[in-house]
Design a protein that fits this description.
The chain is of the alpha+beta class. The protein has helices spanning 2-37, 40-45, 68-78, 153-156, and strands at 47-53, 64-67, 84-97, 101-114, 117-132, 135-148. Strands 2-1-6-5-4-3 form a six-stranded mixed sheet.
């Protein structure tokens, strides 16, 4: 009986951990889905009040601390400039989870199209998330590009 009780106690945290992993993966995938759908209200729910972000030429390679509204505002200004965007996030790996903080990594493949021209980039995403009343939210996002077919600025240049 003692062993049965001990085994049951061990299973509870494991199932809670599995549930957290699913919710974390849904948050990560949800960022790409909301961005491509240009659903800025849903995107806002995926980020904590402040985020350390190394994208969009913010500060340094290590990133800058910005509020979530800055992320949403920047993306909502940038993405409509393209005819389409597609963010494929795959190979999500949860590296560690506590009741409050989680770390994860994923692979990404981004494709933006404008006026028949295409920009593609592939690389790695590193996340830090925190467990909030609203669910798991991203507190840090580092993008590490590994390949791109051309600079994104070429698609944004004014056409002559």
């Amino acid at each position: 009986m003692k062993h049965l009780l001990f085994s049951a106690l061990i299973l509870v945290p494991a199932s809670a951990f599995a549930s957290d992993e699913v919710m974390i993966a849904e948050t990560i995938e949800g960022i790409a889905t909301a961005a491509d759908a240009q659903d800025w209200a849903r995107l806002d729910l995926k980020f904590a009040d402040h985020v350390i972000l190394n994208q969009l030429s913010l500060a340094t390679e290590d990133g800058a601390r910005v509020d979530e509204q800055t992320v949403v505002d920047t993306w909502s200004e940038l993405f409509p400039k393209f005819d389409s965007t597609a963010h494929d996030v795959s190979q999500i790996e949860i590296l560690g989870v506590s009741s409050v903080i989680a770390t994860a990594t994923a692979r990404y493949d981004a494709t933006y199209q404008r006026d028949g021209e295409v920009w593609q980039q592939r690389g790695r995403l590193d996340y830090v998330l925190k467990n909030t009343e609203e669910g798991w939210q991203v507190t840090a996002l580092k993008t590490s590009p590994e390949w791109e077919n051309r600079p994104l600025s070429e698609l944004l240049s004014p056409r002559l």
